[in-house]
Amino acid sequence: MLELAVTLRQLEVLVAVAEAGGFTKAADALRMTQPGVSHTISGLERELGASLIERDRGGVRPTEVGERVLVHAREVLGLVERIGHEAAGSRELRTGKLRIGGFPSATSRILPVLMGAFNARYPGVEITLVEGTDGEVLDLIRSREVDVGFVTLPAGNLETVPVAEDEMLAVLPEGHPLASAGEASLEELAAEPFVMSKGGCEPLISSAFRSAGHEPAVRFEVRDMGTILAMVGEGLGVTVAPELALPQHPAMLEGLRTVPLRPSVRRHLALAVRSLETASPAAAAFVQMALESPRDHPETLLQR
Question: Strand (E) positions, 177-286?
Answer without folding.
Answer: 184-185, 193-197, 217-222, 239-242, 256-262, 266-273
